[in-house]
Every structure is written in C-alpha cells, then in structure tokens.
Design a protein that fits this description.
By secondary structure, this protein is of the alpha+beta class. The chain has a single domain (47-272), classed as paralog of FGE (formylglycine-generating enzyme), CATH 3.90.1580. Helix content is 22%, strand content 18%. It has a 5-stranded antiparallel β-sheet. A 4-stranded mixed β-sheet has the order 9-8-7-10. β1 and β2 (48-51) form a beta hairpin. The longest helix is centred in the first third of the chain and has 22 residues, at 2-23. The radius of gyration is 21 Å and the shape is globular.
C-alpha cells in the first residue's frame, strides 16, 4: 500500500512540474487579466495595457473641428484587446534592426534615440516591425484601427481633450504645451490618460490601419478598420510635438501617403486577447 501511494505521489509531482511553466508563463495568463492590467509577452516586447470593452461616440462632439470628423456616430468595441502603454521607441525599433527583423533604421533628426518615440517610419516599415514582434512573442501584433485609437484615447471622456475641454499645460508634448524640451522629451513623461496610456495626444502622430476617407459617412460601427476609401493614404491620429494644441483634440484626424517617412509620425501597437 505504501509503495502504491509513493507511485501516485511521484506521478502527481511530474504532472505539476510539466504544468507549472505553462500556467505561470506571462503569455499563458495574459488573456485572463482584467482591464487596466499590464502585460508583456517577452523580455523585449513592449508593455501593453488591457482595455475594457464598451461603446462611445466617435467624432467631433463639440463642433470644434473639421468636416472630416463628422458625422458623429456610435461605435461599439465588443472584443477584448490590449494596446501599447507608450508609442514604440527608437530603442525598441533598434532591437528589431539588430535582430534582422527590420531593414530600415529611421533617422532621429539629431534629437536622440533611446526612450524617445520613433519617427520617420512608413506603413511598410511598421509592418516589418509588427511581423518581427509577432514571431518573437508568438502573438499577432497589429496597428490599432482608427475607432480603437479614438476609443482608447478618449478613455470614457466626451471632452475635446482626454483631460477636459481646454488644453491647459503639462498634459502632452507639443509645440505649445510647455513641457520641457518638446523636441527631445522621452515617452511617458506626462500623465497617462484614464486607461493608463501615455502620449496618445502629442509626441508623434500615430499610424492606424484605416484607409483615408473625407468623412465618417459609411464608417464601420464595430471598431473594425475601414478598408475602403483612398488606401494610398492611411489615417494618422493624435498630433505631434510639432503642432499647436488646436490640432491635438481627441477627434482630430489627418491622412498621409503610406510610403511617407515623416519625423512627426510614429505608431503604437495592439493585439487581440
């Protein structure tokens, strides 16, 4: 009888040893984390924030913008996803170059690299980074859709900016923001929004998946990317260090030719859960 229990105990121990690394790995448990949690799929992967599902009104709610921000329409985000805590930095991009995943090394315009948001990357460059990151992590990384971008930037707010109706100071990195040296500041040096994300407003414009359309007539209402329109251009959101506050509202949007490498334009990553 004693020998029988010793055999059973050894079997249970082996099951525990085999199961433990899987159940306690960051990737295995990432899908179970509640909104607001941070996850990181590998040592050199960007940190992500789990965002809640929900619905919101997308567009120029206060009639302060351009016609391309209308009509205001309700969008429902019903699937869980996570989004980069910050924009991708030069340091993170340079890892991709070093490991052979990215062929292009973007200029920093003599402003410095390291923990500053990467600029001078076009859509094809970004796809190389996303492919490299997906292979490295075993998870499919992607750009945000335009609707997802506005959803995570507003973070439940309906005001012109994520923090209120007036721009104020100290909230973002831009030409009129009065935050340090705006051309050299690192990511995450101003307060995050209500979802815990840094620099969705200011710093760099951010590429999203959607083709450019002159307004929201016929836009998807489920948070998916708009694959129709002028697909030689993609939407960029969020404004940059180069623009004044009036171009950094949550609803502000522009279109840019997908081959363009512009010092004002970078990106952040997302992945489904």
């Amino acid at each position: 009888m004693r020998k029988h229990w010793q055999v059973k105990l050894r079997a249970l121990l082996w099951v525990g040893i085999l199961w433990w690394p899987l159940s306690n790995s960051p990737v295995a448990n990432a899908e179970d984390k509640p909104p607001g949690s941070t996850i990181q799929d590998c040592d050199k992967c960007p940190k992500l924030v789990v965002v809640p599902t929900g619905s919101f009104l997308m567009g120029d709610l206060a009639d302060r913008g351009l016609p391309n921000e209308k009509p205001v329409h309700r969008v429902t985000i019903s699937r869980s996803f996570a989004v980069g805590l910050t924009e991708i930095t030069y340091a993170q991009w340079d890892e991709c170059v070093t490991e052979g995943g990215c062929r292009y090394s973007p200029s920093d315009d003599n402003l410095g690299r390291g923990n500053r948001a990467v600029g001078n990357v076009n859509v094809a460059d970004v796809k190389e980074y996303l492919n490299w990151l997906s292979k490295k992590s075993g998870r499919r990384y992607r750009l945000l859709t335009e609707a997802e971008w506005e959803y995570v930037t507003r973070a439940g707010t309906k005001t012109a900016y994520p923090w209120g109706e007036e721009f104020g100071t100290g909230h973002a990195v831009c030409a009129s923001c009065k935050v340090g040296s705006v051309v050299s500041i690192e990511v995450a040096k101003v307060p995050p929004n209500k979802f815990g994300l840094y620099d969705t407003i200011g710093s760099r414009h951010e590429w999203v998946q959607d083709c450019w359309n002159n307004n929201y007539d016929g836009a998807p209402t489920n948070g998916s990317a708009w694959a129709k329109g002028d697909c030689s251009r993609h939407v960029i959101r969020g404004g940059s260090y180069y623009e004044p506050a009036k171009f950094l509202r949550s609803a502000t949007r522009f279109g840019m030719v997908v081959q363009t490498r512009n010092k004002k334009v970078g990106f952040r990553v997302a992945r489904d859960l």
